[in-house]
Amino acid sequence: MSTSSINSRRRPPTHCQCGKPLARRVAWTNINPCRRFFNCRNSTNPGMPHCNSFYWIDPDLPNEWYKSQLLELYLTLNQEQRVHFLGQLSAQERLEILQDEFDVYQNEIETEIEAMGNKKAELEREINKLKKKTSFWRKFGICVVVLLVLLNFYVMK
Protein backbone atom coordinates (compact mmCIF):
# COMPACT_ATOMS: atom_id res chain seq x y z
CA MET A 1 0.00 0.00 0.00
CA SER A 2 1.49 3.30 -0.99
CA THR A 3 1.00 5.92 1.68
CA SER A 4 2.22 9.44 1.73
CA SER A 5 1.38 12.66 3.41
CA ILE A 6 0.48 15.61 1.26
CA ASN A 7 2.87 18.48 1.69
CA SER A 8 1.23 21.92 1.79
CA ARG A 9 3.51 23.04 -1.06
CA ARG A 10 2.48 20.14 -3.30
CA ARG A 11 -0.92 19.83 -4.92
CA PRO A 12 -2.78 16.71 -3.83
CA PRO A 13 -3.25 14.04 -6.50
CA THR A 14 -6.69 13.92 -8.05
CA HIS A 15 -6.69 10.36 -9.44
CA CYS A 16 -5.57 7.00 -8.14
CA GLN A 17 -3.39 4.46 -9.94
CA CYS A 18 -6.57 2.99 -11.48
CA GLY A 19 -7.19 6.33 -13.18
CA LYS A 20 -10.33 7.00 -11.16
CA PRO A 21 -10.87 10.16 -9.08
CA LEU A 22 -9.68 9.67 -5.51
CA ALA A 23 -12.27 9.46 -2.74
CA ARG A 24 -11.86 11.84 0.17
CA ARG A 25 -12.56 10.14 3.49
CA VAL A 26 -12.21 10.76 7.22
CA ALA A 27 -10.51 8.30 9.54
CA TRP A 28 -12.16 7.77 12.92
CA THR A 29 -9.74 5.26 14.37
CA ASN A 30 -8.12 5.58 17.78
CA ILE A 31 -4.81 6.27 16.08
CA ASN A 32 -6.11 8.80 13.52
CA PRO A 33 -9.35 10.41 14.73
CA CYS A 34 -10.80 13.00 12.34
CA ARG A 35 -7.81 12.71 10.01
CA ARG A 36 -8.72 13.21 6.36
CA PHE A 37 -7.22 11.15 3.55
CA PHE A 38 -7.61 10.25 -0.13
CA ASN A 39 -7.71 6.68 -1.36
CA CYS A 40 -8.98 4.60 -4.25
CA ARG A 41 -12.71 5.04 -4.66
CA ASN A 42 -13.25 1.26 -4.84
CA SER A 43 -11.14 0.38 -1.78
CA THR A 44 -14.21 0.10 0.46
CA ASN A 45 -16.24 -1.96 -2.02
CA PRO A 46 -15.57 -5.68 -1.50
CA GLY A 47 -14.99 -7.54 -4.73
CA MET A 48 -14.33 -4.40 -6.76
CA PRO A 49 -10.87 -4.07 -8.31
CA HIS A 50 -8.92 -1.29 -6.67
CA CYS A 51 -5.39 -0.01 -6.27
CA ASN A 52 -3.53 0.79 -3.08
CA SER A 53 -3.37 4.56 -3.56
CA PHE A 54 -3.54 6.27 -0.18
CA TYR A 55 -2.60 9.83 0.75
CA TRP A 56 -3.06 11.63 4.06
CA ILE A 57 -4.50 15.12 3.68
CA ASP A 58 -3.95 16.14 7.29
CA PRO A 59 -0.71 15.78 9.23
CA ASP A 60 -0.59 13.39 12.17
CA LEU A 61 -1.83 14.90 15.43
CA PRO A 62 1.04 15.98 17.69
CA ASN A 63 0.06 13.94 20.77
CA GLU A 64 -2.40 11.48 22.28
CA TRP A 65 -4.30 14.20 24.18
CA TYR A 66 -5.56 15.75 20.93
CA LYS A 67 -6.59 12.33 19.66
CA SER A 68 -8.53 11.50 22.82
CA GLN A 69 -10.26 14.91 22.79
CA LEU A 70 -11.36 14.44 19.17
CA LEU A 71 -12.74 10.98 19.95
CA GLU A 72 -14.64 12.34 22.97
CA LEU A 73 -16.12 15.12 20.83
CA TYR A 74 -17.08 12.58 18.20
CA LEU A 75 -18.92 10.52 20.80
CA THR A 76 -20.97 13.58 21.82
CA LEU A 77 -22.22 14.36 18.30
CA ASN A 78 -25.94 14.15 17.73
CA GLN A 79 -27.27 10.89 16.29
CA GLU A 80 -27.77 12.22 12.76
CA GLN A 81 -24.17 13.45 12.49
CA ARG A 82 -22.90 10.22 14.00
CA VAL A 83 -24.82 8.13 11.45
CA HIS A 84 -23.41 10.29 8.64
CA PHE A 85 -19.84 9.72 9.86
CA LEU A 86 -20.38 6.02 10.42
CA GLY A 87 -21.58 5.72 6.83
CA GLN A 88 -18.13 6.85 5.68
CA LEU A 89 -16.19 4.37 7.80
CA SER A 90 -14.99 0.86 7.18
CA ALA A 91 -16.36 -2.01 9.25
CA GLN A 92 -13.14 -2.20 11.29
CA GLU A 93 -13.24 1.52 12.04
CA ARG A 94 -16.91 1.28 13.03
CA LEU A 95 -16.08 -1.62 15.30
CA GLU A 96 -13.29 0.39 16.97
CA ILE A 97 -15.59 3.38 17.48
CA LEU A 98 -18.38 1.21 18.86
CA GLN A 99 -15.87 -0.41 21.22
CA ASP A 100 -14.77 3.04 22.41
CA GLU A 101 -18.40 4.06 22.92
CA PHE A 102 -19.07 0.81 24.77
CA ASP A 103 -16.10 1.46 27.05
CA VAL A 104 -17.32 5.00 27.81
CA TYR A 105 -20.85 3.84 28.57
CA GLN A 106 -19.61 0.86 30.57
CA ASN A 107 -17.49 3.20 32.75
CA GLU A 108 -20.48 5.51 33.26
CA ILE A 109 -22.71 2.59 34.21
CA GLU A 110 -20.12 1.16 36.59
CA THR A 111 -19.81 4.58 38.25
CA GLU A 112 -23.60 4.81 38.59
CA ILE A 113 -23.79 1.26 39.98
CA GLU A 114 -21.12 2.10 42.55
CA ALA A 115 -23.00 5.28 43.54
CA MET A 116 -26.24 3.30 43.84
CA GLY A 117 -24.47 0.70 45.99
CA ASN A 118 -23.22 3.45 48.30
CA LYS A 119 -26.73 4.96 48.48
CA LYS A 120 -28.19 1.50 49.20
CA ALA A 121 -25.73 0.96 52.06
CA GLU A 122 -26.58 4.40 53.47
CA LEU A 123 -30.31 3.66 53.29
CA GLU A 124 -29.82 0.26 54.93
CA ARG A 125 -27.96 1.93 57.82
CA GLU A 126 -30.82 4.42 58.19
CA ILE A 127 -33.38 1.59 58.16
CA ASN A 128 -31.44 -0.24 60.88
CA LYS A 129 -31.36 2.92 63.01
CA LEU A 130 -35.11 3.33 62.58
CA LYS A 131 -35.70 -0.34 63.42
CA LYS A 132 -33.72 0.09 66.65
CA LYS A 133 -35.72 3.19 67.57
CA THR A 134 -38.97 1.41 66.71
CA SER A 135 -37.89 -1.63 68.69
CA PHE A 136 -37.11 0.54 71.73
CA TRP A 137 -40.47 2.33 71.61
CA ARG A 138 -42.31 -0.95 71.05
CA LYS A 139 -40.62 -2.48 74.11
CA PHE A 140 -41.26 0.71 76.08
CA GLY A 141 -44.94 0.61 75.10
CA ILE A 142 -45.24 -3.03 76.14
CA CYS A 143 -43.63 -2.23 79.50
CA VAL A 144 -46.05 0.67 80.05
CA VAL A 145 -49.02 -1.57 79.24
CA VAL A 146 -47.71 -4.30 81.57
CA LEU A 147 -47.16 -1.73 84.33
CA LEU A 148 -50.66 -0.31 83.84
CA VAL A 149 -52.15 -3.81 83.99
CA LEU A 150 -50.15 -4.60 87.13
CA LEU A 151 -51.05 -1.25 88.67
CA ASN A 152 -54.69 -1.83 87.82
CA PHE A 153 -54.46 -5.34 89.27
CA TYR A 154 -52.98 -4.03 92.56
CA VAL A 155 -55.45 -1.15 92.77
CA MET A 156 -58.35 -3.54 92.32
CA LYS A 157 -57.22 -5.79 95.16
Automatic annotation (TrEMBL):
Residue ranges of domain GRF-type in the record: 16-60
Entry coiled-coil feature ranges: 88-133
UniProt-listed InterPro entries: Znf_GRF
TM region(s), chain numbering: 136-155
Sorted UniProt keywords: Coiled coil, Membrane, Metal-binding, Transmembrane, Transmembrane helix, Zinc, Zinc-finger
Keyword Oxidoreductase: no
Protein name, per record: GRF-type domain-containing protein
Lineage, opening ranks: Eukaryota, Viridiplantae, Streptophyta, Embryophyta, Tracheophyta
